[in-house]
Amino acid sequence: MVAQIIDGKKIAQQIKSEVAHLVQMRIKAGDAAPCLAVVLVGHDSASQMYVTSKRKTCESIGFISLAYDLPNNVSETELLMLIDQLNTNHSVDGILIQLPLPVGIDNIRVLEQIAPHKDVDGFHPYNLGRLCQRAPLLRPCTPRGVITLLERYNINIVGLNAVVVGASNIVGRPMGMELLLAGCTVTITHRFTRNLQQHVQNADLLVVAVGKAGFIPGSWIKSGAIVIDIGINCLDNGKVVGDVNFSEAIERAAYITPVPGGVGPMTVATLIQNTLQACKYRKLS
What we know:
Number of domains: 2
Largest sheet: 6 strands, parallel
Radius of gyration: 19 Å
Strand content: 15-25%
CATH architecture of the largest domain: 3-Layer(aba) Sandwich
Shape: globular
CATH topology of the largest domain: Rossmann fold
Number of helices: 10
Order of helices and strands: EHEHEHEHHHEHEHEEEEHEH
Low-confidence stretches: none
CATH class of the largest domain: Alpha Beta
Oligomer: single chain
CATH superfamily of the largest domain: NAD(P)-binding Rossmann-like Domain
């Protein structure tokens, strides 16, 4: 068995085209284009790269993109004041704070300062709570992107045993909630989990997000499983790989996401979907 590749680049491009069309329809109807404010603190090269990609994507589909590049020594108070200004700016639909923030700034406090209806990353406790209550509004981008990939490939996951390896607030935990909402029986594993191999071997659907290259051997993959690799790791030779040993896993899985080109593009695609949704909320309110 050789797994079918789940092409995140292709699906992300489809979504961008769909959103661009909806934006043009809004503009023709006399409505404003969606507006996303992206806040970058400091000069982390990886963060700068991600922010540049997000801004270019927004502009390419007709969004208004506002850039707020703050110095590394900005205070938490100053950052919170900027967020308050963006919260009350009626022309701004979405606010994105690029993580990680510098040492000395409380990530949780900053994310909680964003108005829930402008929280296009889906990290605010209100939005996470809505997801837990089976009434999601703005959803965390990477987990929602995974669900979209499965839907676009017509992969039925209802009733499957889903195992999430990694329990981060950004990916693992909301991923578990998304899979539960989709009808899976969900196990979330973490650093204290015993018998990780046994959990992985029982997974009909395996989602891995730990940030460790090749952490899951292909021999652990259940024959015919669906493998979603969210990890992005850069090796010393410059090669980018995931958390799953791809060359081994592809021989056992039924479906698998590559790294790069799998889940990564879907995170940005979901961000623009969320921003358009936030724009619609603003109009309704």
